[in-house]
Amino acid sequence: xxxxxxxxxxxxxxxxxxxxxxxxxxxxxxxxxxxxxxxxxxxxxxxxxxxxxxxxxxxxxxxxxxxxxxxxxxxxxxxxxxxxxxxxxxxxxxxxxxxxxxxxxxxxxxxxxx
Length: 114
Hints:
- By secondary structure, the protein is of the alpha+beta class.
- The protein is built from three helices and six strands, in the order E-E-H-E-H-E-E-E-H.
């Protein structure tokens, strides 16, 4: 709040918008937003984008099957039939919820300095 008015905070790059892109580097560092987007060309298998709309869908859903063909990250079936993203660099498996959580953490850390 500034002067009693709500304010949109800038992210670490100075922008008021943060892309919903999350990446894991070979060293295990998590990148979010524009930083993740910039390195997607050289680390496409470990860069996740356009995943939030898959949340709540099962692996066998036709939309999921179409997405599998159009994204560089590996989408796999979880034991319960849900969608998981397999990150090649460190073998981690994550859901769309996990990536959205990482994205929101960046905003929280900027807002609260945590």
